[in-house]
Design a protein that fits this description.
Strand 14 and strand 15 form a beta hairpin. Helix content is 26%, strand content 17%. The chain has a domain of 72 residues: Immunoglobulin-like. An 8-stranded parallel β-sheet has the order 11-10-9-5-2-1-13-12. A 5-stranded antiparallel β-sheet has the order 14-15-16-20-18. The protein has a 3-stranded antiparallel β-sheet with strand order 6-8-7, with no helix packed on it. The longest helix is centred in the middle third of the chain and has 16 residues. Helix 7 runs parallel beside helix 8 and helix 12 runs parallel beside helix 14.
Amino acid sequence: MPSDDDRPWWQGAVVYQIYPRSFADADGDGVGDLEGIRSRLDHLSWLGVDAIWLSPFFRSPMADFGYDVSDYCDVDPLFGTLEDFDRLVADCHDRGIKVVIDWVPNHSSDQHPWFQDARSSRDAAHRDWYVWREPTPDGAPPNNWVAAFSEAEPAWTLDEATGQWYLHLFLPDQPDLNWDHPEVEAAMHDVLRFWLDRGVDGFRADVLHAIGKDPDLPDDAEELIPIPHSGLNHVPEVTLPRLRRIRELLDSYDGDRMVVGEVYLLDTALVAQYYDDGRGIHLSFNFPPLYAPWDAGVWRHRVDEVERLITPAGWPTWVLSNHDNIRHRSRYTSEERARAAVFLTVGLQGTPFLYAGEELGLEDAVVPPERVVDPGGRDGCRAPIPWTPAPDHGWGPEPWLPWPPHADAGRDAETLRADEGSILHLYRRLLAARRASPAMVAGGQRVLDDTPDGVLAWERTAGDDRRVVAVCFAAAPAELALAGDWVVEVTSTGAGEGEPFTGSLDPDSAVVLRPA
């Protein structure tokens, strides 16, 4: 195992995802912005995160709230300016916080100048920068691929002016770029260089596995319809050479620049291929654990899958909530489970990705029909972060989405910070304990087999440093027998920290133990 000095930063980091629209509003328009993020960096430093990942802040018509990019190398005025971004990066780096930004390589906005030119005529200079096909003899789309956000809409739109269909794995407003064209790849590499030269430390690459498509564009199997093709596209012989060139570009910069791929394939064996024996992406999201229920057996299966398939290929990641999915506090139905669940992401071997607001125990907002704005039904998990008590929660005017539940009843950052028993303080203690333990940061891992039903436990080891992490999924207390004497370092309930471990685990709880 590499020493601390040799290990790249992204292996030891805790990464905190920020959805800019919903994090903090500095200019009073009800939408979060870059200056708002900068104003809350003290919170992140106090919490103990090592890096932030910013969801898109680029110029965009916002059909998909920034994932439809009309200018990859500028900040949308809604969020600020390039100068604001530079100040944010500088302030993060002054605090020792790395900055990862979203990169959307599979598709642009239909308002991007590239696509505006491409659809102007079949002979346009950028025509082949996108994926165009002739209609079938009966005028239908070229294949049966289904677009995201709908179980019935094809992943194709007919451009009446030029008489061809163009491909969009997501909205018609998001035409797919044609990575078979060398100028597209070159242009997207230039985008990476633009932000690398501004000091970013890495990228989260949106739907990265889709940049390589079968050139024949064959139909998907009928039994897989209506799954969107974005969740089925897996053509490693086309994609991996492109990822190797991306890896080479990032590795040519100092400072361990990295890319973490959104490889949205719900098969861990497929996800593992994108590490490509150290030649592909540095990290990849593996989403099956995100969909795991509160069940020890299911989680044991998911952990075993990662150890068997991901670990031999590269460094794992762990995530329970993000901007695309119901928050795990809502999925797991109680704060006790939400408290225990973070021990899975922070305690297992790999890089944890936290989602802004989970340290407050936020649930999904209830969004009335007249305020629904997202085409994919994801508004609830994107509700704004309440920083201060009611009425405005540190925002000023009414924000772009409703507040999450209980924001007016003390579920805000200021109130929770004043309560040392809060979930916010639990996150801080757990991150501090992780940072102080080489075993927890990057040590080896051994899942313990002799555990009671409903308990998942594992040992982390690095040299003489050892920790045991145990999560009790059961609805009743459980007894965990361990060889030797152990001390409770962190517990999800907050009770008994610093005291000898008696072997007893509360229902829906978790502990980190160190040798006595």
